[in-house]
Design goal:
This protein is an alpha+beta fold and 137 residues long. The protein has one domain. The chain is 45% helix and 21% strand. It is built from two helices and three strands. The chain has a three-stranded antiparallel sheet with strand order 1-2-3, with helices on one face. Helix 1 packs antiparallel against helix 2. The longest helix has 45 residues. The protein is rod-shaped. The model has no long low-confidence stretch (mean pLDDT 85).
Length: 137
């Protein structure tokens, strides 16, 4: 039974166990919000790593005397450094012409990597970078 104001008799405040019940109801919601925020931060990090790796790979492949294999190897090394074991879920492809090099990465990042296990649901990771080939003067 809720407490009542002594003068007016109107119920006021919480009863002895109401705050505990409110906390028990609210806690699962707060945990879910925290996990979603953490997953969002991990996704943004992974996306930035993929963008950076593809850009650096295209730049490495466009250098004078460099090959497309040099660029894709550079991009793969940066992915491995930035994403660790989760880099295996992202593939690097490249196309070169006489004037430019294009390096692409595509894959997905599994949701909720807990103890190395990931769910079937994944967030897409895609990036593409173009670089004009350097020519000697």
């Amino acid at each position: 039974m809720p407490r009542r104001d002594v003068d007016t008799g109107v119920p006021c405040g919480y009863g002895p166990a109401q705050s505990l019940v409110a906390y028990a109801v609210l806690l699962p919601f707060l945990v879910v919000v925290l996990i979603v925020m953490l997953q969002g931060a991990l996704y943004v990090h992974a996306r930035n790593v993929v963008f950076g790796a593809v850009h650096e790979g295209a730049e490495a492949a466009s250098g004078d005397g460099a090959t497309l294999a040099d660029g894709t190897a550079r991009a793969q090394a940066l992915l491995q450094a930035g994403l660790g074991q989760y880099a295996r879920d992202v593939t690097i492809d490249g196309v070169e012409t006489r004037d430019e090099v294009v390096v692409e990465a595509h894959g997905s990042m599994g949701v909720l990597h807990l103890n190395g296990q990931q769910t079937a649901l994944g967030l897409p990771l895609y990036a593409r970078a173009r670089a004009v080939r350097e020519t000697p003067p």
